[in-house]
Inverse folding.
C-alpha cells in the first residue's frame, strides 16, 4: 500500500517508499519525542541520512550538486517527513536551496548550492520581516521568527520585492533562538544591521517566487501531518470498544473521520497542483490555495485525532500532541508570508 498521497507515479511511489523506509530506520518519530526531553532538534544521524540520499538537492540543478528534478519530488519527501515528524532543518534548507537555484546568478549558485545539497551547510528562508537593501548595498532589518535560523549557515531573506543572501556568521547578523511549541526544529529571530552584501547576492524581484516555494513545500509537509493524524484516528477507532462495540461503528465518529478525510484529500490535490506547475510564476495562485487549505487542515486533523482518541489522546505518552505541536507551528509560519486568502482574492 502506498503511504504517500502525493506520489501518483511509479517513480514517486518508489521515492516515497525509500523515504519512509529510511525515516523508519533512523527512528524519526523517536527522535521527535526525544526532543521533548531535551534531545537535539538537529539530530546528526537523520541529517546525514538525508544528505547521503540527496534529498535536499532533489530540485537543484545537477551542475550544482543536485539531482535536477523539481518540486513534485521534493514535495513527496516533505510529505513523508511531516508524516513521520522528522526533526531537523530539512524544510528550511531545501526551501532556501530552491530559491537560490531558481533565482540566483551562476556565481552564487556555484558558491552556495554544493554545500547546501551535500549537507555541509544549513539554510534558512525568511519570507517576512523588515529587511531592506540600502543605497550602499548593505542590508538592515529583522524577522521575528525564522524556521531553522539557529542552525543556519546561509540566510535567505525576503527584502521588499527582492531576496538577499546573507552569511549567518557575518558581523552584524544576530540570530536569537526562540522557545517553540514544536521542539523538534529550531526557531529563531533574525536581526541584520548594516551587513554588506555583494551585488550577485541580491536576487532582484525574487520575493514572490520565494513565497511560492515556501508555501508549496510547507503545504507538502502539512499533507503528511494531516494524513498521519487521520490514519492514527481511524486505526484507533477500529479497535477501541465502548458499550460493547468498536467506536468506529458510531455515526458521530464516522462523521469526524469523514471530515478529516475530505480535508486531507482537498489539501493533497491543491498541494500537488502547486508542486507540478511548470514554473514558479505560474504556481503563485496554486501555492496560495494550497497554503490556505493546509493551514486549516493540519490543525483540524490533529485536533480531531486527539478528540477521537478520547482520554488517551491527551496524555504525554501518546504521539497525538506531537502532531498538534507540528501543525500549530507550521500553520503559524505559513502566514508569515502574508494571508494566502488575501492573495487569492486579489488574484481574482
Amino acid at each position: 500500500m502506498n503511504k504517500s498521497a502525493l506520489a501518483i507515479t511509479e517513480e514517486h511511489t518508489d521515492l516515497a517508499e525509500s523515504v519512509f523506509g529510511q525515516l523508519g530506520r533512523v527512528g524519526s518519530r523517536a527522535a521527535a519525542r526525544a526532543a521533548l526531553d531535551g534531545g537535539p532538534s538537529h539530530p546528526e544521524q537523520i541529517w546525514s541520512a538525508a544528505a547521503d540520499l540527496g534529498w535536499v538537492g532533489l530540485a537543484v540543478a545537477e551542475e550544482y550538486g543536485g539531482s535536477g528534478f523539481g518540486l513534485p519530488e521534493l514535495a513527496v519527501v516533505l510529505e513523508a517527513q511531516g508524516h513521520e515528524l522528522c526533526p531537523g532543518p530539512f524544510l528550511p534548507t531545501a526551501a532556501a536551496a530552491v530559491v537560490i537555484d531558481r533565482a540566483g546568478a551562476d556565481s552564487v549558485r556555484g558558491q552556495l548550492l554544493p554545500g547546501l545539497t551535500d549537507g555541509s551547510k544549513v539554510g534558512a528562508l525568511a519570507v517576512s520581516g523588515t529587511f531592506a537593501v540600502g543605497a550602499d548595498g548593505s542590508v538592515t532589518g529583522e524577522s521575528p521568527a525564522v524556521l531553522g535560523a539557529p542552525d543556519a549557515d546561509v540566510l535567505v531573506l525576503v527584502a521588499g520585492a527582492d531576496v538577499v543572501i546573507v552569511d549567518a556568521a557575518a558581523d552584524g547578523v544576530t540570530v536569537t533562538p526562540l522557545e517553540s511549541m514544536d521542539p523538534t526544529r529550531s526557531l529563531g529571530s533574525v536581526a541584520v544591521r548594516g551587513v554588506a552584501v555583494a551585488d550577485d547576492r541580491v536576487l532582484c524581484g525574487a520575493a514572490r517566487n520565494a513565497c511560492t516555494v515556501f508555501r508549496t513545500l510547507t503545504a507538502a509537509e502539512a499533507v503528511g501531518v494531516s494524513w498521519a493524524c487521520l490514519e492514527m484516528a481511524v486505526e484507533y477507532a477500529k479497535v477501541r470498544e465502548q458499550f460493547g462495540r468498536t467506536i468506529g461503528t458510531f455515526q458521530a465518529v464516522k462523521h469526524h473521520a469523514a471530515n478529516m478525510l475530505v480535508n486531507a484529500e482537498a489539501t493533497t490535490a491543491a498541494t500537488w497542483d502547486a508542486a507540478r506547475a511548470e514554473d514558479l510564476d505560474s504556481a503563485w495562485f496554486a501555492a496560495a490555495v494550497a497554503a490556505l487549505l493546509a493551514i486549516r487542515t493540519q490543525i483540524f486533523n490533529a485536533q480531531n485525532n486527539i478528540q477521537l482518541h478520547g482520554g488517551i489522546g491527551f496524555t504525554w505518552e501518546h504521539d497525538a500532541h506531537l502532531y498538534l505541536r507540528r501543525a500549530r507551528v507550521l500553520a503559524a509560519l505559513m502566514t508569515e508570508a502574508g494571508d494566502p486568502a488575501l492573495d487569492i482574492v486579489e488574484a481574482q
Notes: The chain has a mean pLDDT of 94. The first helix runs from residue 10 to 25.
